[in-house]
Amino acid sequence: MFKLFSSTKVFLSRVDNRVIRLIVTLTSLVLFVLAAGAPCGLGGIGM
Amino acid sequence: MILVFAIAIGLLAGYLKARFDGISYQTTELRCLWLVLLAALPQYLIYSLPVTREKVSDQWIPFFLISTQLILLLFVWLNRKSPSFWLLGMGLLLNFVVISLNGGWMPISPATLESQNIPSSQWQLGSRFGYSKDLVMAKESINLWILSDILTLPKGIPYRVAFSIGDVLLSLGVIGFLIHNKQADRETRKVYLQENLKP
Known about the structure:
The complex is a heterodimer. Chain A is mainly α. Chain A contains one helix and one strand, in the order H-E. In chain A, 74% of the residues lie in helices and 11% in strands. Chain B is 55% helix and 7% strand. In chain B, strands 1-2 form a two-stranded parallel ribbon. In chain B, strands 3-4 form a two-stranded antiparallel ribbon. At the A-B interface, helix 1 and strand 1 of A face helix 1, helix 2, helix 4, helix 5 and strand 4 of B.
C-alpha cells in the first residue's frame, strides 16, 4: 500500500513540474487572447 | 476562435522545434496569471454565457471592456521581459486604442459585413453586432478606421470572421511566445558555461 502511494506520489510530482505548468500557461494564454482580441465571428458559410 | 487557432499553431511549432532539437518542451513562466482570470471572467459573463449576457445592458459594456483591457495591459507590462510579449502587448495596445477612441466598442463597418455576405437584416447601423464586442459604424465616423475590424479571411476558407491589425499582432505574439523554448535557453547556457569554465 505504501509502495503504491509512493509511486503515485512520484508520478504526480513528475506531472506537476512539466505538464501542469504547461496546461496552466496554455489555459491562461487562451483566456488572454479571448479577452484581449476583438475579432468578430460572423459564422460559418452555409450554416 | 481565430486567436485560439494561433495558440494551437504556436504550440505545435514549439513542440516540433523542441523534438527537432532533441530537448524537452517548456514555456517561459508567466507572472501574475490571476490578472488574466480577473479580466477574462467578466468578459465571459458579458459576451459568452447566454444567461448573463442577455441581462447586461449595452451601456455597461464599454466600461467593462476598457477596464478589463487595462488589467490585461498591466499583465503584459509585468511580463514584458517574456519572449514576444512586446508584440503581444502591441496588439493589445492597438485594440485598446481603437476601442477607447470609439466609445468602448470595436468598430466594424457595413462594408466589411457586406463583403462577408452578411444580410443587412442581421445588423443595424449604430447597434451592437450580435453579442460581440463590435459596434456597426459608418466608415466615416470610425476613429482610426485602420485599426478596426477590417481584415477578413481569404474566400476559400469556409468561416467568416472580421479581425483587426491588433488581433494579427496578438496572434503573432502568442505564436512567438510558444515557439520560444525555455529549455533551449538552459541548454545554451550550459554549453556556454562548459566552454568558458574549462581549466
